[in-house]
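User: Predict structure, ligand pyridoxal-5'-phosphate.
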Amino acid sequence: MTKSPLTSQDLRTPVLRRSFRKPYPAAVRGEGVYVWDADGNRYLDFSGSAAVNFIGHGVREISDAMVEQARQLEFVHTSQFTTPAAEEFAQELLDFAGDNFRGGAVYFTCGGSESVETALKLARQYQMEIGQTKRHRVLSRNQSYHGATLGALAVSGNRKRREIYLPMVREFEHIGMPYCYRCAFDCTDSCYNCGQQYAAELEQAIEAAKGEAAGFIFEPMSGATLGAVTPPPGYLQAVAEICRRHGVLLIADEVMTGMGRTGRNFAVEHWLGVPNAAPDILITAKGLSSGYAPLGAVMASKKVVDAVAGGAAGGQECPPYTGSGAFLHGFTYNAHPISVAAGRAVLRRIQSSNLVHAADSDAEGTAGSALKKALESLRDLDAVGDVRGLGMLWGVEFVADKKTKAPFPPEKNFSGLVGQACRQRGLLVYPMQGSVDGVAGDHLLIAPPAVIASEQIDWATEQLRAAINESL
Ligand SMILES: Cc1ncc(COP(=O)(O)O)c(C=O)c1O
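Assistant: Predicted complex:
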């Protein structure tokens, strides 16, 4: 590949980039599953950037909807106005989330971290509104990722991303996370038993919090930190039941897994379809706008909204709470009209192109099933220890020794090397480290747009195979 003079030589530019150690090509155009840089090099986006793009790049109807909105009205502040686009999109999203969110409400933000912050505060305020004033702790899991802001970092369990900021954050309890490839319990029952033991840790943590637990936040499928790890059977149901029993709100972080990515509208539907086990608060971002605009959403169930709204706005069915009538939270750009217009157009595209079905890896003839089959074929490589995932969200974990599952030394940065080799071949993947203990352990996240064709999947997998071999 040729190199852009701007990006290959200048490690230091006016942009404070993610890293000063590596060059970044300048991206200038996107279409379908491809992105082009300023030198005309083409890359197949096999990770949807960072599990963001679900509908493909360069879809004209999305930019048209954004332009239309910007021409009509670019912005108003939510303390003064609502907008038709926000009202309509909120209802469309609640409908997309299904029966469990009927009568609920949506808070729009500019992304995942803002949404997590919003959900943490909403959980606290909910508990205050119902008279549980001591409850303020939000429990979470080790090896989770909920965002970069300090509140979101506090509930995250990603060691590397948290370490230096720990003196600045208020810490609550973190419990263990089932990770069946490296199961600590030596299960012989597809990890049903270990799932129950991990769920029991939640109950112990709630009890140890002595009436101060307000909520429990979790990723239905572990996203970035562990790499598309699915929960063992029975685990999330047990977690949901424990939260219900203890009056702790269940907060599903579907920033990465929501909006069809796993082959369901939301990933919780794989495990928590029934009303009593549904999350009280559901957070989504990334695929919500497919990256066309900064957008996140916090969906609050009727129970939560009623408690805040009280008698002020149709919460009368929910005595004895009176409800303060106002959510004590706000961002200047929440429900930004242009972002909301992008989100609405993206949802229409997801539905008109039947992309949730396309993402379903268990349905025949779909992009999801082709992706599953192609990635599974990498298992024969010595360096590939595990291939796991669902829908259009997959993790490929690397090992130095397949038998012992020993990881590569972290300083080798094996996943980074594979990522670089892929890039040289015109393929974008999402390399991560730390799956074993927060530092050691290498994996890739694979999360292409659901519009990817099976020949593109095959080509990408061939390149990935070669890149893994080259990196050894
Ligand atoms: C599960 C999860 N929650 C929250 C976030 C933070 O989202 P953002 O980077 O949009 O702030 C991410 C980002 O990767 C995520 O995967």
